[in-house]
Amino acid sequence: MTSIGLCWIRRDLRLHDHAALSQCTLENDVVHIVFIFDDAILGPIKSKVTSDKRVQFICESLIEINQVLVAKGGSLWIRHGNPVDEIPKLAHELGADRVYFNRDYSPYAIRRDTLVSDRIIGEGREVYSFKDHVVFEPTEIVKPDTTPYRVFTPYSRAWISQLGGVHQLPTFPVILNGIGHGDRSDVLSDTESLLKFVGFEPDPTLFPGGSVEGLRRLSVFADGLSAYGTEREYPSRAGTSKLSVYLRHGCISIRDLVNVALNHPSPGAQKWLVELIWREFYQAIFYFSPWVNDRPFQDRYKGLVLTTSEDYLACFKAGMTGFPLIDAAMRCLNQTGWMHNRLRMVVASFVTKILLIDWKRGERYFSFKLIDYELQSNNGGWQWAAGIGCDAAPYFRIFNPTTQSKTYDPDGDFIREFCPELSRLNSQQIHCPASAKTLPESFKLGRDYPYPIVDYAVQRKKALAIYGSHRPD
Ligand SMILES: Cc1cc2nc3c(=O)[nH]c(=O)nc-3n(C[C@H](O)[C@H](O)[C@H](O)COP(=O)(O)OP(=O)(O)OC[C@H]3O[C@@H](n4cnc5c(N)ncnc54)[C@H](O)[C@@H]3O)c2cc1C
Q1: Is 0.90 topped by the overall pTM?
Q2: How is domain 133-171+210-288 classified at the architecture level of CATH?
Q3: Res. 216: pLDDT tops 80
Q4: Topology at the third CATH level for domain 4-131
Q5: How far is the CA of 241 from the centre of ligand 1 (A)?
Q6: Is 15:21 a contact under the CB 8 Å cutoff?
């Protein structure tokens, strides 16, 4: 008898090194592959905007997948709705014996996947879920007494020791035979048709979707990996991989990246591996302490109240605070959907400790804008910068945006790119026009670029007093 498998792809938009798909193709004669545009995720976006860079990226990636499947004699299934209804319905329509998917560790995904699995099993089918999205799942890296790690360094040591000195992680090969036919070739002809199907307008990005581009970028980055340790802090240099977008949506696998790091004998590669471990650390923190979604990880800050100024919040979102590095970073985020790690740290510190805006408001804004938005990493990054998270920057460590600007954008190249109105300023004036001794005659502060919306020194004092009052006795 012909066996039929249904593989549900979600944030693993690729056809190589894919645990669920690999197993599905091994165990079944006919393999159907489906992607569901989840209303619970798209609804809130749609209520605010008509186009979204993440939806664009996902559609481009799905079009690429479908093209490969068509070349193999099949095609992708596409649905739009609630996966809890859509997956069991499709499994029923196809007469699937088994359903396969890769595990996702966000609270919403865990709830959703449990509901889907219960229904599938209730209908007499088998369900299999796989570790794919991480090297080690949260429960695999715990302290000897089985409690979760709260500090990064011992967690990363345990993570590396668990690797056991291997230089190559095993991958999950996919052989595309017996691929079934989806029923929506009409919407899968091109990205625009697919976007229209989900009710979005095009919003092209600097990150073309798909595995081909993800793997190409990985290979280019690997060539310069030795320099990562020194180049990674400078936003105007190509020092970091910018692969977060591809990793987030699974166009490349975590094993694609880790294997590059393990095979590269350089301190740069070791440093890069540490960053990949941070990603799994934050997944683990969120998994064991899901309440960090709304509350500080450190209990002592649970009573911390910051009265967010809506005016400051608006200036922060628009990149109009009068602090050039902050403004360039925010405009970069608004225009491209991506921000350099150094800038994410400086911006989040500035928002929470200088503008005294509630960290949730900043975190939320990033969650709408980042194409690489990852619940756990974003939450971890904001709590770290605000000084309230696990293993966070101490509350008295407040980045000075002007000093950061002079150190990491010394010639002002990054600022000039995103704040063109400042391009006439020289590399001394550009970091803080308000305190420059002279400015070009044609440039008028307050008219061409805002005065700083706050006095950094005054706000810093306020922050130290507010955060300091929450110190342990
Ligand atoms: C306030 C704040 C918010 C953040 N929000 C996100 C987010 O929503 N999504 C996201 O993927 N990362 C987030 N980060 C982490 C980090 O800034 C990005 O992963 C990084 O900038 C992506 O660029 P890259 O791919 O060039 O990184 P690289 O330096 O090339 O690093 C390789 C990969 O390691 C992971 N990584 C690197 N640094 C971190 C880190 N500090 N924490 C967790 N993972 C890391 C990412 O997957 C990244 O792609 C945030 C950091 C801060 C401070």
Answers
A1: yes
A2: Alpha Horseshoe (1.25)
A3: yes
A4: Rossmann fold (3.40.50)
A5: 10
A6: yes
